[in-house]
Write a structure and sequence with these properties.
5 helices, 44% helix, 136 residues, alpha/beta, Rossmann fold
């Protein structure tokens, strides 16, 4: 996998979460950018593409579900994880219907996060090879 294909956008309004993700994903060698809200994420996505996006569901402006829908309007190939500690408001099996590819629950163990991201990039690579697309 090329370095360009290991790009991740993390959207979370909690600075502590962003800092922890920055340290952890940096140690794993991922090229990661961060947004503190959906508006900032959409501005970043206007300029760059990311094969993987991890977004909190509870954001201060546009919630993670709306953000996911807006991202899906731009790209059906982007892999999107919902990242939340409060999953009770939405049934787990509804996440796929909303456009998410998976759910990561807070607090998350580093090993679980690593496996989830590796699994996402494996799926992304398989999809790209099938469709003949080059990595982002």
């Amino acid at each position: 996998m090329t370095a360009l294909s290991k790009k991740i956008l993390v959207v979370d309004d909690e600075e502590t979460i962003r800092e922890l993700m920055k340290m952890g994903l940096g140690m794993l060698g991922y090229d990661t950018e961060f947004a503190k809200n959906a508006k900032e994420a959409l501005e970043i996505l206007d300029k760059k593409e990311f094969p993987l996006i991890i977004t909190d569901l509870r954001l201060p402006d546009i919630d993670g579900i709306e953000l996911c829908m807006r991202i899906r309007e731009r790209s059906s190939e982007t892999f999107i994880y919902a990242f939340s500690g409060g999953v009770t408001e939405v049934e787990f099996d509804q996440f796929e219907e909303m456009g998410f590819d998976g759910l990561l629950c807070k607090p998350i163990k580093f090993e679980v996060l690593e496996r989830a991201i590796e699994g996402a990039f494996e799926k992304i690579d398989r999809m790209r090879k099938k469709s003949g697309h080059t990595p982002l």
